[in-house]
Design goal:
This protein is of the alpha+beta class and 744 residues long. The chain contains 20 helices and 31 strands. A 7-stranded mixed beta sheet has the order 3-5-1-11-8-9-10, sandwiched between helices. Strands 14-13-12-7-31 form a 5-stranded mixed beta sheet, with helices on both faces. Strands 17-18-26-27-30 form a 5-stranded mixed beta sheet, with helices on both faces.
């Protein structure tokens, strides 16, 4: 047995020790010489203008270096295009400290810079800002009256494609279900708050930023401040959770860079937890689902209409209504997606954006149809199972959802379920069993990687991608080890640096598929170079073997037919006469890949089964068991893959029972902006979670056959919980989260 890491091994995270011992430095944990600290002053109104800023008392605080506002800031770009970023939606991006206009509550209106964080904070409390207020609206319900279809689509947005005549088919259906479902605003709440440390070096800057895309931030800052890209280096080797909150550059990185440029000093700026609530979030949504079926539960019509909230200055869009239209066989289906604008910051991608909302709410509707037709919920989905992407009328590269249903149901014991609500009990607890389907995209993005071998036989693989807790370091290491047969101790993965080979922002579950493919390509090219050099080793230890006759094992190149004939990597490197061999490659969809993408759909699928126990008197809900069966192509590392699904399932439980952002519409402000008041699941809320990976070979979905796992774990989980609650109590709640008051 070889000791080198292979694809399919359950390795612990290579960066794990640094993270648990506290030696991994995050964005706000760098201390350049002569560091200054910035404290953000947030607006006290939701809409209007700044009339006057009196900073006299603030400037009197010892240690205050400068107070930066729209009045005294140095030059920044004016055009919208300069503030755009890699994942920006259509519209006019927010510009911190640009002018006196206020467009959302807690918008930054000033930055106090001082010699210590405490002095900056104390001075900020003394800043006196007066406003001219304008009427605002943060009530999604009111905004729905003026909902609209965006004129310009987001580059990643695809609207639903109708088929047949859904309205007519629904009217003719013997069984009809129509209901409106609701999901409130959610906030990401990563442990690491958004912070930036900017090192000033004679006109050049090194930016330590909490971001999911170092090169995205590099381009963004260059556009705003006129830096040459070569003078801006962005580092994010460790990210304390993102969940999408770091896809776009956030305003603290602009303010820290602005202060560093203005003062020609190194500056750190970090948002408070309350300020984290003022920016990116999962948008509030309303979805009306109409399902028509025959008496046996066969779908005859699907009509799916959804509206989500956006800001007044950008049209943030998600793929909301497509999922049910894609997943279920039905000759007549249509969807409509609209936006409603409110006076908040622009919402943004949060773990499985679109699917976590749209698929979840649709799956609650499917459960309601199961009861209307008196068909078991699992059988209803199998009855309407589609072997192809029903919306686009094209096959999937692979779809093992049927197998996921079967394996998940068997593990859970679904066959023992009784159909009637309230029919299963354990003492004073009502027991409910619910299930749902999950679906997400399997994406592959253009990504570059570099493989470097040094004279001592050590390998470094590098890419500008990020590791947001998903295990990218480990995946890069495993792929490299699989190709070049090196022990784990001899491989180093390097990422999170804008100077490294180009990579997109880390998100969308494309990290392992894309970065892994780039690393594999670079390592294979390096292997070719090493094989050529092996022919120059004295004594010809490979005995003239051809390229396809050798293998890389435990730091050696060996002849497959006779492993005794071998040569060490060190000897090969010595034969090159170089200190290192370096190869860079870019993995990207080719012409054939693009043609396949047009002809076939690429998706992950899951089947989620949930048990809840509900106190019959108090109506308190506990999720006691979850089985999540996932069909996601090739699994590179079952251990870290399981961790991703566990995290997604826990967030799904949060969606179902806990997470809800409350807004005071009079103030136009999110109010429960702390971890004490915004409820997320904790250890006491989580019991048994079983993860099953369904065998799903897929040679064409991505170069490694990987479909990605970051998002699929959350999709449908909240629906399965809500459906289980109905099975336990007979009370259908159509607005998440399902709290005690809604069950009483």
């Amino acid at each position: 047995m070889t000791s080198n890491p292979r694809i399919g091994d359950s390795l612990s995270r290579t960066d794990g020790v640094k993270k648990v011992t506290g030696s991994a430095p995050y964005a706000a944990e760098h201390f350049p010489a002569d560091l200054l600290y910035g404290w953000i002053v947030s607006s006290g109104i939701a809409k209007g203008r700044i009339k006057h800023i009196d900073d006299s008392r603030a400037r009197a605080i010892a240690g205050v270096v400068e107070i930066i506002t729209h009045k005294n800031r140095p030059h920044m770009a004016f055009l919208d295009g300069s503030y755009g970023d890699e994942v920006a939606p259509p519209g006019s991006p927010f510009r911190p400290l640009h002018d006196d206009k206020i467009v959302y509550s807690l918008q930054p209106v000033a930055l106090v810079v001082a010699d210590t964080l405490e002095n900056a904070r104390d001075a900020a409390a003394l800043l006196d800002v007066t406003y001219e207020t304008e009427e605002h609206n943060t009530d999604f319900g009111i905004a729905l009256a003026d909902k609209y279809e965006p004129k310009k689509k987001r580059s990643t947005f695809e609207g639903p494609k109708a088929r047949g005549n859904a309205d007519e088919a629904f009217a003719d259906s013997p069984v009809q279900h129509r209901a409106t479902y609701h999901l409130g605003n959610h906030h990401h709440n990563p442990m690491e708050m958004h912070g930036t440390t900017v090192e000033w070096n004679d006109g050049k800057i090194v930016v330590h930023d909490k971001t999911q895309g170092a090169q995205n931030v590099q381009a963004y800052l260059s556009g705003i401040f006129g830096f040459s890209k070569k003078d801006v280096r962005v580092l994010n080797p460790y990210v304390g959770g993102g969940f999408g909150s770091g896809l776009r550059p956030q305003y603290q990185v602009v303010l820290a860079t602005l202060a560093a440029k203005m003062l020609k000093r190194s500056v750190r700026v970090t948002m408070t937890r309350a300020q984290m609530w003022s920016h990116v979030h999962r948008p509030e949504a309303q979805q009306t689902v109409s399902l028509g079926a025959d008496q046996n539960g066969q779908l005859q019509a699907i009509i799916n209409h959804a509206t989500t909230a956006t800001s007044k200055f950008e049209d943030y869009m998600e793929v909301i209504v497509n999922w049910g239209l894609m997943n279920y066989k039905c000759d007549n289906a249509s969807g409509e997606y609209t936006l409603a604008s409110v006076d908040t910051y622009t919402p943004g991608d949060m773990r499985a954006p679109g699917a976590a909302t749209g698929m979840t709410l649709f799956e609650i509707a499917m459960d309601e149809l199961a009861y209307a037709t008196k068909v078991d919920p699992l059988q209803l989905r199998l009855l309407n199972y589609s072997e192809k992407d029903a919306m686009h009328d094209k096959p999937f590269t692979s779809k093992a959802l049927r197998e996921a249903y079967a394996q998940g149901a068997e593990c859970f014991g679904w066959a023992r379920r009784t159909q009637a609500p309230g029919s299963m009990r354990d003492g004073n607890d009502l027991i409910g069993w619910g299930m749902a389907t999950g679906m997400w995209d399997a994406m592959f993005q253009k990504t570059a990687a570099r493989a470097t071998m040094t004279a001592d036989g050590k390998l470094e693989v590098a890419s500008a991608t990020a590791d947001i807790g998903t295990g990218t370091y480990t995946v890069m290491t495993q792929v490299a080890g699989d190709v070049l047969g090196l022990p784990l101790a001899d491989i180093t993965a390097k990422l999170g640096d804008s100077d490294l080979p180009a990579a997109p922002v880390e998100g969308g579950s494309w990290g392992a598929a894309s970065t892994g493919a780039a690393v594999e390509l670079a390592c294979k090219s390096l292997a070719d170079e090493l094989f050529k050099a092996a022919g120059r080793v004295e004594g010809k230890p490979l005995d003239g073997a051809k390229r396809d006759e050798i293998a890389f094992v435990d730091g050696f190149i060996v002849v497959r037919a006779n492993p005794e004939k071998r040569v060490s990597m060190r000897d090969v490197m010595a034969a090159t006469g170089k200190d290192k061999l370096e190869v860079e490659e870019t993995a990207k969809p080719g012409i054939l890949d693009m043609a396949s993408m047009l002809q076939k759909s690429r998706n992950t699928h899951s089947a989620i089964f949930v048990e809840v126990k509900v106190d019959a008197e108090l109506h308190i809900v506990r999720v006691t068991r979850v089985v999540c069966a996932v069909a996601a192509g090739r699994i590179i590392n079952p251990k870290t893959a399981r961790s991703q699904i566990l995290g997604g399932v826990v967030m799904g439980i949060g969606m179902a029972l806990h997470e809800e952002t409350f807004t005071d519409h009079k103030l136009g402000r999110f109010m429960n902006h702390s971890l004490a008041e915004y409820h997320i699941p904790v250890n006491a809320d989580i019991e048994d979670i079983e993860v099953i990976f369904v065998d799903e070979p897929d040679a064409e979905v991505t170069p490694l056959g990987v479909k990605g796992l970051g998002e699929i774990g959350i999709v449908g989980t909240a629906a399965a919980v809500a459906n289980a609650i109905y099975h336990a109590t007979g009370t259908r709640v159509r607005s998440l989260p399902v709290t005690v008051d809604k069950l009483l």
